């Protein structure tokens, strides 16, 4: 019997329960979000045990429509319950004596000395798994295939195919050796047509990079 058809990346609820109803706690984020400062690739999903009405506010509560920074998430990422992106608009100045944001209260903020400069974008690569309750700090840069442990507090840059955990988060180990990481980035299976991806699910989910490489050439 052939497998059931894979859901379209613009479907809101891609998981079906045994009775045929939609699982409200899992969404394809590209369909769930309508936010001018968030970019999400196809098939990236998020899960929540108490599904919110506003997924953008749940995932990135400090990223406002008028925020200068962006949150950019690649394709086929997996975002567990309780994950939050603490984007740069949450920052206070901490290079002087006081971190109090005087400019937030009672007037225009532009040019006020208590406001920090524009913060960096937060960028998540493709096929990144972010575990339950992790916090991703302003300007974090996560390479392709990174795995973030549950409860990690992640700031800074982490290379592709690393496993990251702790507070502050550190690389626990790498998933593949450097030449293999380069090869996987060249293969870029996440850019294949979905029918091709599904046809080679075994190779993508396996660990034989040479087998995957033969498919892509």
Overall morphology? globular
Q: Total domains, how many?
A: 2
The CATH superfamily of the largest domain bears the name Hexapeptide repeat proteins
What pattern of helices and strands is seen along the backbone? EHEEHEEEEEEEEEEEEHHHH
Quote the CATH topology of the largest domain: UDP N-Acetylglucosamine Acyltransferase, domain 1
DSSP strand content = 15-25%
The number of helical elements comes to 6
Mean pLDDT: 93
CATH architecture of the largest domain: 3 Solenoid
Q: Main sheet: which strands, in order across?
A: 1-3-5-8-11-14-15
Low-confidence stretches: none
Structure description:
It is a single chain. The chain is of the alpha/beta class and 217 residues long. It folds into 2 domains: 175 residues, UDP N-Acetylglucosamine Acyltransferase, domain 1 (3 Solenoid), CATH 2.160.10; 41 residues, no CATH class. It contains 6 helices and 15 strands. The strands form 3 sheets. A 7-stranded mixed sheet has the order 1-3-5-8-11-14-15. The chain has a 5-stranded parallel sheet with strand order 2-4-7-10-13, with no helix packed on it. Strand 14 and strand 15 form a beta hairpin. Helix 3 runs parallel beside helix 6. It starts with 25 loop residues before the first strand and ends with a helix.
């Amino acid at each position: 019997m052939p497998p059931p058809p894979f859901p379209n990346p613009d479907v809101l609820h891609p998981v079906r329960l045994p009775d045929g109803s939609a699982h409200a706690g899992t969404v394809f984020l590209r369909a769930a979000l309508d936010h001018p400062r968030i970019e999400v690739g196809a098939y990236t999903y998020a899960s929540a045990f108490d599904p919110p009405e506003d997924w953008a506010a749940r995932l990135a509560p400090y990223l406002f429509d008028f925020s200068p920074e962006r949150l950019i998430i690649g394709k086929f990422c997996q975002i567990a319950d309780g994950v939050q992106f603490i984007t740069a608009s949450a920052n206070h100045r901490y290079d002087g004596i006081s971190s109090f944001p005087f400019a937030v209260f009672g007037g225009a903020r532009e040019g006020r000395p208590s406001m920090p400069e524009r913060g960096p974008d937060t960028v998540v690569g493709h096929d990144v798994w972010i575990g339950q309750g992790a916090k991703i700090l302003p300007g974090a840069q996560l390479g392709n295939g990174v795995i973030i442990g549950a409860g990690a507090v992640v700031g800074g840059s982490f290379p592709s195919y690393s496993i990251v955990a702790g507070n502050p988060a550190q690389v626990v180990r790498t998933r593949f050796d450097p030449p293999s990481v380069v090869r996987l980035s060249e293969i870029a299976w996440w850019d294949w047509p979905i029918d091709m991806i599904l046809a080679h699910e075994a190779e993508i989910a396996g660990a034989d990079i040479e087998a995957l490489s033969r498919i892509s050439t």
